[in-house]
Amino acid sequence: MPVLRSAIRELQLELPEAEIKGSYEPGDEYAFYADLKRIVTAAERQIMIADNYLNTDVFDLYIGPIPPHVSVRIMTDQLRGNLELVAKKYATRGNFQLRSSNEVHDRAVFVDGRCWVIGQSIKDAAQRKPTYMVELQDATKMRAIYDDIWNRATTVVESLT
């Protein structure tokens, strides 16, 4: 299976990238979901999601299918509902960390060397209000800012492989 997955990823890299819609009207939840899922499932090395209003849907809808060799980091300021419990279950796959910090307001998703900023929380995006998801041309500075915050954040769940 690893050889097959590697071959599929290699072929995907050669295909033109699907266009991300980028702006979403109220009620356009599925388009937002499909675009964000396409972004995170393309990860080959690492993902970091920063969003203060996450719930357990982030596991079921977005990061569940991520292969264990891809490092997944999530940062939020509030552990709503069963988020910590589900994070502990997800952590058994390895390469996962959940941290808490109140230093972040905006939503950001980092995949390998790229970064997208998101207007609304991932859990509510495009339900009742318009939102956006825009890729930064150069993710270097934003990545450095979020890595600094990550390093100061409180570890909630950690499983490194």
Structure in words:
The chain has one domain: Endonuclease, Chain A (2-Layer Sandwich), CATH 3.30.870.10. With 161 residues, it is an alpha+beta fold. It has helices spanning 2-14, 29-41, 57-63, 83-90, 140-152; strands at 23-24, 46-50, 71-76, 96-100, 107-111, 114-118, 131-135, 154-159. It has an 8-stranded mixed beta sheet with strand order 1-7-6-5-2-3-4-8, sandwiched between helices. The model is unreliable at 12-16 (pLDDT under 50).
In short:
This protein is an alpha+beta fold and 161 residues long. Helices cover 34% and strands 24% of the residues. Strands 1-7-6-5-2-3-4-8 form an 8-stranded mixed beta sheet, sandwiched between helices.
Q: Could you list some keywords that capture this structure?
A:
single chain; 161 residues; alpha+beta; Endonuclease, Chain A; eight-stranded mixed sheet; 34% helix
The number of strands is 8
Form type: globular
CATH superfamily caption: Endonuclease Chain A
* Overall tally of domains: 1
What is the CATH class designation? Alpha Beta
Rg over C-alpha atoms, rounded to the nearest angstrom: 15 Å
Task: Please give the CATH architecture.
Answer: 2-Layer Sandwich
Arithmetic mean of pLDDT: 89
CATH fold field value: Endonuclease, Chain A
Structural class: alpha+beta
Order of helices and strands: HEHEHEHEEEEHE
Helix content: 25-40%
Percent in strands: 15-25%
